[in-house]
Amino acid sequence: MSAPDREPDRTGEPDETDGSEVARSGSDPGAQADDSGAPGDRDAGADRAPTMLEQMGGVSGLIYSGIPVVVFVLANAMFGLMPAIWIALGSAVAITVARIVRKEPVQPAISGFLGVAIAAFIAYRTGEAKGFFLFGIWTSVVYFSVLMLSVLVRWPLAGVVWNALNGTGMDWRKDKPSRRGYDIATLALAAVFAARFIVQRWLYDEDHTGWLAFAKIAMGYPLYGLALLVVVWAVRRSDRRLKHLRENRERTDAEIEAELRAKYDRPAHDTSARDTSGAVPTGAVSTGAGRAVSDDESSDTPPR
């Protein structure tokens, strides 16, 4: 009698079902994993905080901010004051509209347009081209005064504004090195506005309108960006110190709790050890029933 035919071993053969499932899916599982991770990467990129340059409108924002000033100076030299005012306003409006159409940040453009409008109004009222720069000159004095006052009252504005915008509280004021760093950052910003006032006021008094335009552009965002580097240094320095202080505070609290536990838990363990040892306390008599009776109890017991 012959042995029954054995089924061929198919363990080494590829599974047709699995292959069909992969074929129906239309892609490799690894590729699906990569595709599924792509949205997360895109979301992470979308949630990235804008850089300092991006908040200023990017490189294009820096360029756009100087166009109305240059246009005003050139138009004033060629056509006179009134045409220059209208041409400068027209250029500011065109820049704002262009940024809206291109879906770029419009806040820098709107701020620039308002600044140009105020400067043009002052130039119109004074009847002089250099009046176009008068608003920026006196604005620098106001900013310098506010920043210096904040340092004198020990509320440096760089620290107040930054921590208020980020919701990190005012713990930095309790740490002297952190407050000192924000003092330095605030003084750096104050120095920028002081330099603007000194240079541009002198050029204004000397009637150097062309150099006024150059100074306004050169001492604008470029110089302000240098001061912001000092602010970034102060922020990072303060964040590191506050993090270190919080870690030390938590570690100290844990050490105190451990010492208290070691101090008050040990007697309780010793007492429980004595109770479980079965030793009869001094002055007690062991009865037959297994209960310890004190000397006073035994003396009060009447004789039988």
From TrEMBL:
Residues 1-13, 257-273 have a biased composition (Basic and acidic residues). It holds the Pfam family DUF3159. Residues 1-48, 257-304 are annotated as: Disordered. It comes from the Bacteria. The keyword Membrane applies. Residues 295-304 have a biased composition (Acidic residues). Keywords: Membrane, Transmembrane, Transmembrane helix. InterPro entries: UCP010219. The chain crosses the membrane at residues 58-78, 84-101, 108-126, 132-153, 181-199, 211-235. This is DUF3159 domain-containing protein. It comes from Prauserella alba. The lineage of its organism: Bacteria, Bacillati, Actinomycetota, Actinomycetes, Pseudonocardiales.
